Amino acid sequence: xxxxxxxxxxxxxxxxxxxxxxxxxxxxxxxxxxxxxxxxxxxxxxxxxxxxxxxxxxxxxxxxxxxxxxxxxxxxxxxxxxxxxxxxxxxxxxxxxxxxxxxxxxxxxxxxxxxxxxxxx
Length: 121
Description:
Pfam families: DUF5130. It comes from Nocardioides terrae. By secondary structure, the chain is α+β, with helices and mostly antiparallel strands. It has helices spanning 9-26, 42-51, 77-80, 85-100, 104-119, and strands at 29-34, 59-65, 70-75. It is built from five helices and three strands. The longest helix is centred in the first third of the chain and has 18 residues, at 9-26. The model has no long low-confidence stretch (mean pLDDT 94).
C-alpha cells in the first residue's frame, strides 16, 4: 500500500488490517494507493496502477489523491461478477464523506469494508 508521507505507521497498519480482513471476506485482492495522481486523466492513472498488480482480474484498486480530492476504484473482471458499479460508487461516496471530515484512514477502512461485503462470493 504505497502511501507516501500521508499516513503514519500506525495508520498504515490500520489500513493494512482492513485490507487483510476484506481479502478474507471477499476472496478478492485489495490494493490502496494514497498519493499524487499524475496526468490529466485520473481514471487512466488508476487503471495503469491496477494493471501492474499480480492478479488484476481478481483485484480492487483504490486510488486516493487527497490534495486533488480524487477517488478512483478500479475492479477486475472476476470482481465485477459480484460487485456492481453502483456498489463501487457507494463505497467511493462513503470514503468521500469521511475524507471531508479529515478522516482519511476511517474513510479508507469504511470503503474497503463496504467493497469487501459487496464483492464476497
